[in-house]
Design goal:
Layout: H1 2-15, H2 27-38, E1 45-51, E2 56-62, H3 65-71, E3 76-82, H4 91-108, E4 116-121, H5 132-137, H6 144-149, E5 160-164, H7 169-172, H8 176-187, E6 191-199, E7 209-213, H9 232-235, E8 239-249, H10 250-268, H11 274-281, H12 284-295, E9 303-304, H13 309-328, H14 334-340
Parallel strand pairs: 4-5, 4-6, 6-8
Antiparallel strand pairs: 1-2, 2-3, 3-7, 7-8, 8-9
GO molecular function: metalloendopeptidase activity
Function: Initiates the rapid degradation of small, acid-soluble proteins during spore germination.
EC number: 3.4.24.78
């Protein structure tokens, strides 16, 4: 077993295959992978972290070509809100996180002028872990029809907000990017806000993390099924993306479990045990790729989500919809949202 494990580690290191291939949509996690490997900050990337009572905010900005290449992420801002308690149905906490997310959203969108906004809820409403986008859209205070009805160009209290949940290609037969591009050409919004489910490399971040970015989104990326990008290059207007990791793949979950087992056995092993010392020194990516190769012949690299996912998605959709409503509509506060929109 020891010889086999050592051989596998050497093969992976000679291939150089493990860097940045763990499935994740979070810029925060890509940065962690680089730091773990290089023991330094990524060139071309600026990072700022703020710790609040219940929420940790990490702001990652990729500001040049070198950072874009090393991160594998487009230049722009990636803001991550982490709150372990998000999995619990706590109404006060939901309101707090909504307000924090709304503040961050205002900081990346120019709302000093009347806005026309299109919110796109990506995902499959019939698959609960992928239903975040459509659930958010169902809770928005849409107003475009009112602007058209009363022939108004702007309003001090409201943004001209429209929303769409375009479904997935498997049910529409149409590329999501094509649908959104056609809507943008006709509706002519100033900005698109796209909401989608993501994937994480750590089970602890599933359903406890919200990422806000200024670089757009790839529909289906959460389950490794990337489609045409929704970004400023394809749509011609800024695209803000909001996502929550709702799944991990089986290799990631197994990796986390094995890490716990290694830690437990290492504590019980004799001091200086070469075998357990070697296990402890394994990089996360090395363990991940060994597990993935073992699972591959059995087609076992499935996506995993918590069993309480129905309730969690409902809570998260409330948080994100509330944040969008109070961030984009100047005349609406959280009290109005909770009173009239649920």
């Amino acid at each position: 077993m020891r010889i086999y494990l050592i051989q596998w580690i050497l093969i992976l290191r000679l291939r150089g295959e493990y860097m940045f291939q763990v499935r994740t949509d979070l810029a925060l996690e890509v940065r962690e992978l680089y730091q773990e490997e290089k023991q330094q900050e990524i060139p071309g990337v600026a990072v700022d972290q703020e710790s609040l009572e219940n929420v940790t905010i990490t702001r990652v900005e990729v500001f040049n070509d070198e950072g874009e290449k090393l991160m594998g992420k487009a230049k722009g801002k990636y803001i991550t809100l982490e709150c372990v308690a998000l999995r619990r149905p706590d109404a006060d906490l939901k309101d707090e996180v909504s307000q924090i997310l709304a503040k961050e959203l205002r900081n990346v969108i120019d709302i000093d002028k009347p806005l026309k906004v299109l919110v796109v809820g990506l995902g499959n409403v019939h698959v609960t872990p992928d239903a975040l986008g459509p659930e958010v859209v169902s809770k928005l205070f849409v107003t475009r029809h009112l602007f058209k009805l009363y022939n108004k160009e702007s309003d001090e209290a409201l943004a001209e907000l429209s929303a769409i949940a375009p479904g997935v290609m498997g049910t529409t037969g149409i590329e999501t990017g094509e649908i959104i591009k056609g809507i943008v050409e006709n509706v002519k919004p100033d900005v698109v806000v796209a909401v989608d489910a993501l994937a994480s490399r750590k089970m602890e971040r599933v359903n406890t993390t919200i990422q806000l970015s200024t670089t757009g989104i790839h529909p289906g990326s959460g389950v490794g099924n990337k489609r045409q990008a929704l970004d400023e290059k394809t749509l011609g207007i800024p695209v803000i993306a909001i996502g929550v990791p709702t799944v991990v793949d089986a290799a990631t979950l197994t990796n986390d479990t094995i890490q716990l087992v290694i830690g437990a056995f290492s504590k019980q092993a004799k001091t200086g045990s070469q075998f357990y010392n070697m296990l402890q020194e394994l990089k996360e990516e090395e363990k991940y790729h060994m597990i993935k190769e073992v699972l591959e012949p059995y087609s076992a690299n499935v996506m995993v989500t918590p069993k309480e996912v129905d309730e969690i998605i409902l809570n998260l959709s409330h948080i994100i919809a509330n944040a969008i409503n109070i961030a984009l509509h100047p005349g609406i506060d959280l009290k109005d949202v909770n009173r009239y929109l649920h």
